[in-house]
Design a protein that fits this description.
single chain; 155 residues; mainly beta; Hepatocyte Growth Factor; 2 domains; five-stranded antiparallel sheet; two-stranded antiparallel ribbon; 13 strands; elongated
């Protein structure tokens, strides 16, 4: 299966404000917006910082300081604020088709980026996320914990 996510970019002059401080995965210097995110340029695939982290759903980049911040929170659960013109937000959109193997035998998710093999022998959401009926999502996006059953549903 080919995994291809999509990145939406905000206008310059915006900054990401997560609703939960623990949403920050990492911050580092990146020489460009492309290196902070990921982008396909002609026949070359550039794998950026966000693309290397399967938990990354949102990033912001400051072209002046070269600061790249990665978050596991989404635009739906956080705020976009006005900022200096050197800052920009990117949001990773992951198609729900990437989660078609949820609940299938572990042989279906051996090389899967977004699902892991559970102790029950089925493809499940990774630790820290839960199933919302269509895809794995961060637990605190629902302000609830997952139920104790094996399906790891968000409640």
């Amino acid at each position: 299966m080919t995994f291809q996510s999509y990145i939406w970019l905000s206008d310059w002059g915006t900054k990401f404000q997560p609703s939960v401080q623990s949403s920050l995965l990492s911050q580092s210097n990146a020489p460009s917006l492309l290196r902070c995110s990921s982008c396909k340029f002609q026949d070359y695939q550039l794998f950026g910082t966000c693309n290397l982290n399967r938990q990354c759903r949102t990033f912001d980049y400051d072209s002046s300081s070269l600061l790249c911040r990665l978050f596991d929170g989404t635009l739906n659960t956080s705020n976009i604020t006005s900022s200096v013109q050197t800052q920009r937000i990117g949001s990773v959109t992951i198609p729900t088709s990437f989660f078609n193997n949820y609940g299938q035998p572990c042989s279906k998710c051996v090389e899967d980026r977004y699902l892991t093999c559970s102790g029950f022998g089925t493809c499940e959401c990774p630790i820290g996320s839960c199933w919302n009926g269509a895809q794995c999502d961060k637990r605190n996006n629902f302000n609830a914990s997952a139920s104790s059953n094996i399906s790891n549903w968000c409640i």
